[in-house]
């Protein structure tokens, strides 16, 4: 392992989902008892390409007091990751990048465009500089 690698890096592989695959993930979210929560996370990613641990904690009525409070967000993203891996058939699929400084999960433009389409929205908001 080099200094630039994460100790469990071999367990993850960047994966871009199609709109159809995101639709399947959304369906899995809708089937859970906490569907509103998981759909909140997915809509946050679709709306702004990011969801923060702080916003996940706020949804769960938690005020972050220490770094350990990041478990709330990571557990939630882990659940969505299991759905992504199930839908893609890739046991290493990772749909996000983790920003450890800001405590947020981000997705790229094309991932966001596919997720937005899965929600029935345009690839990018009207008037944006993104690809229409």
Question: Can you give a write-up of this model?
Answer:
This protein is mainly alpha-helical and 132 residues long. 47% of the residues lie in helices and 10% in strands. It has helices at 19-30, 35-48, 53-59, 70-88, 109-118, and strands at residues 13-14, 50-52, 93-94, 97-99, 104-106. The protein has a 3-stranded antiparallel sheet. A two-stranded parallel ribbon has the order 1-3.
CATH topology: Arc Repressor Mutant, subunit A
Compute the gyration radius: what is it?
Answer: 15 Å
In the CATH classification, which architecture applies? Orthogonal Bundle
Order of helices and strands: EHHEHHEEEH
Largest sheet data:
3 strands, antiparallel
Give the termini distance in whole angstroms.
Answer: 41 Å
What is the total number of structural domains? Answer: 1
What keyword list fits this structure?
132 residues; Arc Repressor Mutant, subunit A; two-stranded parallel sheet; globular
């Amino acid at each position: 392992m080099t200094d630039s690698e994460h100790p469990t890096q071999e367990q993850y592989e960047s994966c871009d989902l199609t709109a159809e695959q995101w639709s399947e993930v959304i369906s899995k979210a809708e089937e859970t008892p906490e569907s509103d929560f998981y759909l909140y996370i997915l809509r946050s990613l679709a709306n702004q390409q990011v969801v923060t641990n702080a916003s996940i904690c706020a949804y769960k009525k938690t005020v972050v007091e220490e770094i350990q409070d990041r478990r709330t967000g990571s557990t939630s993203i882990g659940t969505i990751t299991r759905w992504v891996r199930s839908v893609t058939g890739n046991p290493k699929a990772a749909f996000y990048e983790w920003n450890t400084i800001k405590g947020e999960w981000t997705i790229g433009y094309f991932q966001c465009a596919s997720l937005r389409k899965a929600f029935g929205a345009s690839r990018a908001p009207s008037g944006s500089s993104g690809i229409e």
